[in-house]
Amino acid sequence: xxxxxxxxxxxxxxxxxxxxxxxxxxxxxxxxxxxxxxxxxxxxxxxxxxxxxxxxxxxxxxxxxxxxxxxxxxxxxxxxxxxxxxxxxxxxxxxxxxxxxxxxxxxxxxxxxxxxxxxxxxxxxxxxxxxxxxxxxxxxxxxxxxxxxxxxxxxxxxxxxxxxxxxxxxxxxxxxxxxxxxxxxxxxxxxxxxxxxxxxxxxxxxxxxxxxxxxxxxxxxxxxxxxxxxxxxxxxxxxxxxxx
Length: 244
Description:
By secondary structure, this protein is mostly helical. It has one domain (4-243). It contains nine helices and two strands. It has a two-stranded antiparallel ribbon with strand order 1-2. β1 and β2 form a beta hairpin. α1 runs parallel beside α3 (62-78), α1 (4-27) packs parallel to α8 and α3 (62-78) runs antiparallel to α4 (81-105).
């Protein structure tokens, strides 16, 4: 029977993927860029927390990191390769800004009546390594994911002559490999020296299991995103081009 952590994790997946689709439906590419920024920033904070769920120790942030791969796959499939790469570099840029601003907080001398700094300092004093690990690994794995997605796409289109077939293959074929690279690099850079080898191995294995699970779950979300895109394109009339 699923416990509290398991239920919250499952609910987080449904909510995060659902909000990603809602952002795309309501705001198009701009909505996905906003979700990419949100997921990147909050995953950096969540990743500091270890929880136990489904019998494994894992860092929070796995779901939000998985959402960034869904976002780039939606942009690759429904918009363009350039739009997907833009989301990647938007995430990197905002991570750098986040790092600089949060570290500037540590330089202030709090007022005698302040109550927040004692909680903020322990949290964000550990953040630089985490954020540096996050945005460097994020840039590598996401750029690779976008590239590999389009390599799978070229292969499936060449084999079938149909650009729309095998969406599930290019989605999972790119994400599962990219997530393996992402999980390995992030675990080593972010946690080596902080935890022993056994804990590192557990974090890596559990994180990748979660990524495999979320990657399989994001495939229906990607099909829904393509339906949203198709409906938007059907609403475009010849007069739209004349007035553009």
